[in-house]
Design goal:
The protein is built from 15 helices and 28 strands. It has about 500 residues and is an alpha/beta fold. The longest helix is centred in the N-terminal third of the chain and has 17 residues. It comes from Solibacillus isronensis B3W22.
């Protein structure tokens, strides 16, 4: 099966149903499918066939969804790239995933032009925008009267997308998500949210994000919903959009709800009576903020737990179940889940263990990284590296992120990536990056630095990071320190560093 069948199946039933609202533009299901088939024909002419890896580096717009489906319709594999990434980040993903074709838009051109000489496998770069020269093919040149006759038939084990994540080694790895993974998860998410064709889903999450793809358009399209697509999140404009468009489903991250809480006067003025489901993912929603949001919107916020390797979702607080503060709920039906100690023995209720799972949402593996795959998937179980406990009723509670991931505003930040960059600075002797709790972003990034240059200042380090990292990865705080806490064997003790950071904060 090909995941594009979600679209074609709905189109056959609801051809004239609106599917994408964007600014003043509107596409019906039939119009969307026609566009997908047109662009697929153009991509096929550029060599996008079964097995071709195609990087997609665009912001939120209908053309993202069109291009995503068009790549898959030809049997290609999508490699999403954050459009705010810098040269070093883009180059790594493009080369590691052996991308043959790269699709961007005007805003990404400065980065791509600095990086393109380092690309090893890219044959063609397609630009969606007004500024195209001989180095690029225009996206609009793909949109001709030609059309593919059918989508390429695939097996459920064929890879649909390679999404880059990071593990205990800190090196980015491409998680291979199959058509079967996506199909099962899209249908499951749609059923859990009880989606119907009359639903209106507001998507402000960035579409390169796995959560946005699943909940923002794959699950809604599977059930014939209308998608109201926004370019970016803005607290006031997003709240107004929920009310104006009579949105029934809103999907966000904790940071968005924290910003909503800062404009209570607007929340009180607007009508959210049509909203029946609001979801939060990417990080835990603080209990106080959860309570305020539930009261403001008049709905119960659904939370959950998952990771890229689980095709986003693993557990959720289904609205049919009583809520428990700080719980991420229970495993989705069809998923086996265990909590084990370091020796692999299952732990008792209320004891902390590492989360292991298996099921139809489990990734195929890491792209061309057999050792990392074998270390993560053992005896059919995927070891998440995250710690949790369960109570006697089966509710699960996340205790810690074993991998030291920092979750800032719903985005994963991997400390080692920043640390390795800082170590490239000639004045940096030693460094360690940790997360600091923050009421708005969930966490902010703190870089502790030992410098051999007494004249090095915070702005110097921040400017250095800004030139090489996406903005959300740049440390929020840079603190110079004489010595970083270490164990007897010389290993940096992040727990001790976090305690030091906590004690340094104003009481």
């Amino acid at each position: 099966m090909n995941i594009v069948e979600l679209l074609t199946s709905t189109t056959s039933r609801l051809p004239d149903q609106p599917v994408i609202h964007f600014k003043r533009a509107l596409l019906t299901y039939k119009e969307l499918q026609d566009k997908v088939y047109n662009i697929a024909a153009g991509l096929k002419d550029q060599g996008v066939t079964k097995g071709a890896n195609v990087a997609l580096m665009m912001t939120n717009r209908p053309e993202y969804i069109i291009t995503y489906f068009a790549i898959l319709a030809n049997g290609g594999t999508v490699v999403p790239i954050n459009p705010t990434f810098k040269e070093q980040e883009v180059t790594y993903i493009v080369n590691d995933s052996e991308v043959e074709l790269l699709i961007i838009e005007d805003t990404a051109k400065p980065v791509i032009e600095n990086a393109m000489d380092q690309f090893k496998t890219v044959k063609t770069i397609i630009n969606y925008g007004d500024h195209v020269d001989e180095r690029y093919l225009s996206w609009h040149q793909l949109d001709t009267s030609a059309s593919i006759s059918e989508i390429v038939p695939l097996h459920e084990s064929d890879v649909a997308q390679i999404i880059y994540t990071s593990g205990t080694t800190g090196n980015p790895k491409g998680a291979m998500i199959t058509h079967g993974n996506l199909n099962w998860m899209a249908i499951t998410a749609a059923v859990y949210n009880q989606l119907v064709p009359s639903d209106r889903v507001l998507c402000v999450l960035p579409l390169f994000h796995a959560y946005a793809k699943l909940q923002g358009f794959l699950a809604p399209i599977a059930h014939g919903c209308a998608i109201y697509l926004e370019e970016r999140f803005h607290p006031v404009e997003t709240l107004k959009a929920i009310a104006e468009h009579e949105i029934t489903i809103f999907l966000g991250v904790p940071t968005m709800y924290a910003f909503f809480a800062q404009v209570p006067h607007l929340v009180e003025q607007l009508d959210f009576s049509k909203l029946r489901t609001a979801g939060s993912g990417g990080a835990s929603l603080p209990s106080e903020l959860l309570h305020k949001t539930n009261e403001s919107f008049g709905v119960s916020i659904s939370e959950g737990y998952g990771l890229t390797e689980s095709t986003v979702m693993l557990m959720t607080t289904h609205r049919s179940l009583p809520k428990k503060v700080n719980s991420v709920g229970m495993p989705l039906p069809g998923i086996d889940l265990r909590l084990v100690d370091p020796e692999g023995n299952e732990v008792a209720n209320h004891e902390v263990g590492e989360i292991l799972f298996r099921g139809p949402n489990m990734m195929k593996g890491y792209y061309k990284k057999p050792d990392e795959t074998a270390n993560t998937i053992r005896d059919g179980w995927l070891y998440t590296g995250d710690l949790a406990y369960r109570d006697e009723e089966g509710y699960h509670f996340i205790v810690d992120r074993k991998k030291d991931i920092i979750i800032r505003g719903g985005f994963n930040i991997y400390p080692r990536e920043i640390e390795e960059l800082l170590y490239q600075h000639p004045a940096v002797v030693e460094c360690s990056v940790i997360g600091r709790p923050d009421p708005v972003f969930g966490e902010k990034t703190v870089a502790y630095v030992v410098s051999k240059d007494t004249e090095l200042i915070e702005d110097d380090v921040r400017d250095y990071c800004k030139a090489k990292l996406a903005e959300y990865k740049v440390p929020d705080y840079i603190i110079f320190i004489e010595e970083i806490p270490k164990s007897g064997t010389g290993k940096i003790l992040k727990t001790a560093l976090k305690d030091l950071d906590k004690n340094a904060l104003p009481k």
